[in-house]
Amino acid sequence: MTAIRSVVLGCGSYLPERILTNAELASQVDTSDEWIVQRTGIRQRHIAADGEFTSHLAIKAAQAAIAHAGIDAQSIDLIVLATSTPDNTFPATAVSVQHALGINHGAAFDLQAVCSGFVFALATADNFLRTGAFKRALVIGAETFSRILDWTDRGTCVLFGDGAGAIILDAQQQPGLSTDRGILTTHLRSDGRHKAKLYVDGGVSSTQTTGHLRMEGREVFKHAVGMITDVIVDAFNATGANAESIDWFVPHQANKRIIDASAHKLHIAPQKVVLTVDLHGNTSAASIPLALSVAVADGRIKKGDLVLLEAMGGGFTWGSALVRW
Ligand code: UT7
């Protein structure tokens, strides 16, 4: 029995020029390079320039993904952009990307699931492609978290950065086997009981301000590994894949300790883990496509490889995806 699968044609990413190092941050708040590296694995983050918006980062990542895929932008009929830091309250940042790419057919919209945004966007696009509603999707994660940080709060301002990543998905008929190329399964979860552990203390309807990110870091950490591993086990159970059969583990890049603990619990070999958190910190919805782009560009992820993605973040939201590249 054949199946329509969302096959990855290419990916790309963009980081703003300005690099903010741990040493520089230590001159602004009571922290140190040693503390940040030991507790998180982060060495630097990129910060968007004045006048550089989430859409600008997203457009550059999208253009890189389109070039990598070798496709005509006009063949894209769906754009799903995951962000918690849109340019404007409305319209969706996705329509600015659509316009910049010269596309005026199909649909473009934003989706908000904080750090899990890319996995949620991937699953959304996949479902549209598999039903035949759209043929070719551009899925983007793009954030300017620097704009919602409280730069006097050392518990959060050292963790996050700006960036964008994108992939192109194409609806293709596949044999319907576990050896198919494309997205093989996705699993999404959320639990609003935890919403006060990681949130922004402002918003359109509540305060009419943008607000600042607030987090009970230790509480988030405590839940993260269990939630991540549960939803990966769901992906394994749905497909028959396991820690041995996957080629690469590309997790949300929030904290090296969370990534290491999750990989260890699942018995995923350390050499299969793609880690880029040292280079850009936690870029929320952008972190997975940023890491994917690095591992594809350096030749680690190749056509036919089985790639496991996961993310967890505010809400809480969490999710996994298994993709044969
Ligand atoms: O994207 C998904 C959402 N976010 C996450 O996944 C983040 C999850 N949480 C974490 O990554 C970690 O909890 C943090 C990196 C935020 C913190 O690491 P931790 O090992 O949980 O540290 P902690 O919060 O328990 O703090 C330990 C100490 C505290 O001092 P006392 O109370 O022991 O005296 C903090 O005040 O470290 C202190 N501290 C800092 N020290 C230097 C907190 N932030 C800093 C800092 N520099 N930037």
Q: Evaluate the radius of gyration.
A: 18 Å
Physical arrangement of strands within the biggest beta sheet: 1-7-6-4-5
Number of domains: 2
The fold-level CATH name of the largest domain is Peroxisomal Thiolase, Chain A, domain 1
Uncertain parts: none
The separation of the N and C termini measures 21 Å
What does the model show?
The protein is α/β, with parallel strands linked by helices and 325 residues long. It folds into 2 domains: 3-174, Thiolase/Chalcone synthase (Peroxisomal Thiolase, Chain A, domain 1, 3-Layer(aba) Sandwich), CATH 3.40.47.10; 182-324, Peroxisomal Thiolase, Chain A, domain 1 (3-Layer(aba) Sandwich), CATH 3.40.47.10. It is 32% helix and 27% strand. It is built from 10 helices and 13 strands. It has helices at 22-26, 33-40, 54-69, 93-100, 117-131, 154-157, 217-239, 256-266, 277-280, 287-297, and strands at 3-14, 18-21, 44-47, 78-82, 107-111, 136-144, 162-174, 182-190, 198-200, 213-215, 248-251, 306-313, 317-324. The strands form 4 sheets. A 5-stranded mixed β-sheet has the order 1-7-6-4-5, with helices on both faces. The model has no long low-confidence stretch (mean pLDDT 98). The chain binds oxa(dethia)-CoA. Residues 31, 35, 39-40, 115, 154-155, 158, 198, 217-218, 220-221, 224, 254-255, 258, 282, 312-313 line the site of oxa(dethia)-CoA.
